[in-house]
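#structure-requests
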Amino acid sequence: MCNDERYRTDLLQVRLKGETAILVSKQEEVVQLILDTSAKLFEKYGYNNVRISDITRDIGMTTGFFYYHFRSKEQILQMIYENYISGAADAVREIYHIPNLTAQEKLNLLIKRHCKGIRDNHSHVSVFFREYRNLSEEAIKLIQEKNSEYLKYVVKIIEQGVDEGLFKADVNPKMVSLAIIGMCNWIYQWFKDDGEKSIDEVGEIFYRLVTSGLLK
């Protein structure tokens, strides 16, 4: 078990030594451990059926140590949502701005990265799609903004393909983008690492499926 006062003293000692990077790393690792553990418990039992004591017991930490990092279970849920959608929005924005790539190449990268992101963060993604009703209004507004940002850049990639003459001129970029996002998102329900196809193969199948209807 952790001693909260000893932990705070350790942090102060690190600060005095000027080793800020070590302090940040240590705190980030603890926060991530709490988030990952919470996401797995929320996925398995449901958010409303998990108590903070369940989280701390699963990790092996005191309740006081938990409250040193989080105010509440609600804050954990909000951070799970914010981290996932912010990371996704950052990724699609980065893909869109990669120079010297055609829209077709960006779309390939986008679909495969989206699928891998869901595979690599399965518990977080499951919580993301199942526990929306437990978010505060403020958190929902932020999530909606990030969702809109993600959609905006997928639309931009499709529009780039039309402008480049690669994609059909009569496509509806928003409808196509929503279809791509929905298709990729749904793999959280059925993809298994020991299944018939690897995540790379699933991404390639999705990419070929989408481009078969887009390419001229």
